[in-house]
Amino acid sequence: MDEETRLPILAVLGAADATADEERVAEDVGALAARHGWVVLTGGGPGVMAAACRGAVAAGGLTVGILPNDRAEVGYPNRWVRIPVFTGAGRAAMPSTCCRRRCAWRSAAGRAPFPRSRWL
Question: C or N: which end of the chain has fewer Cβ atoms within 10 Å?
Fold first, then answer.
């Protein structure tokens, strides 16, 4: 697939335990990206990740979640992830975070990092 036919991807990277303000901004970012034809890529969990996906889906967009688990678990993927990518890498360990972060950064044409993100 060449650059002209590939959908642009925005990686939204943020904390699962986001504040209400962070979630509002993430939802707006997800919606804005979707309205402009971008796919929203997150870690697929709660907080900033869910808010960005929720905004994108509400705006008619597509969402992808790079998940730490190898199958659906409570909170992963969040209900707005349309394409779950199950890595089986685990949640808390640094290798998991690094693996998922590398996938997101390398796949995305744009990045929206939020404060307190373990992805940064």
Answer: N
CA–CA–CA angle 108, 117, 21 (5° rounding): 100
pTM comes to 0.88
Q: What is the pLDDT of residues 54-73, one digit of tens each?
A: 999 999 999 999 998 899 98
Q: Whole-angstrom Cα distance, residue 87 to residue 109? A: 21
Q: Confirm whether 34 is domain-assigned.
A: yes
- Matching residue, tokens 């699962």: 16
Measured in whole angstroms, the distance separating CA 39 from the mean position of its chain's CA atoms is: 10
Q: Find out whether 23 and 46 touch, Cβ atoms under 8 Å.
A: no
Place of tokens 């890498």: 89
Establish if 4 belongs to a structural domain.
no
Residues composing the chain:
120
Asked if residue 2 is part of any domain, the answer here is no
pLDDT band for position 96 (50/70/90)? low
Can you tell me whether residue 40 is helix, strand or coil?
strand
Asked whether residue 18 is assigned to any structural domain, the reply reads yes
**Residue 76 DSSP code:** B
Tokens of 113: 């990092």
